[in-house]
């Protein structure tokens, strides 16, 4: 996968959620189950970051992220929402794609590089359209891996 962060296929999901809080909770559960992290630590980290300002990126995308103890390298999760959800995004639009990122607590530059890579990926309108129209999690993972691996090369 990418030299910047790990994206496990089990962390790519199509999710039905009806609130920002439910998305954040589901994201914490996903990180806990896929990467073996403490769910409470993850949700606390994500919510603490969200208190500083919404991670609603705009154009239907949110990038909830945090730095937490116990990680060796950044890890990611991707949710395509069945229905758009209000997320207090910068442009006021609801989100339908959520790209979560957790980095080691001391990963200053690495965390920023991973966020920048995700941001570049999600700014691509064609990519966003392909993600929104992908039929299932397997197709989503294929799209993401193809672009992430290409950009890492």
From TrEMBL:
Pfam family, one: PTS_EIIA_2
InterPro entries membership: PTrfase/Anion_transptr, PTS_EIIA_type-2_dom, PTS_SugarTrans_NitroReg
Residue ranges occupied by any PTS EIIA type-2 domain in the UniProt entry: 1-147
UniProt cross-references to CDD domains, sorted A to Z: PTS_IIA_fru (cd00211)
Domain of life, source organism: Bacteria
GO MF entries: protein kinase activator activity
PANTHER family noted in UniProt: NITROGEN REGULATORY PROTEIN (PTHR47738:SF1), PTS SYSTEM FRUCTOSE-LIKE EIIA COMPONENT-RELATED (PTHR47738)
Annotated protein name in UniProt: PTS system nitrogen regulatory IIA component
Species in which this protein is naturally found: Novosphingobium taihuense
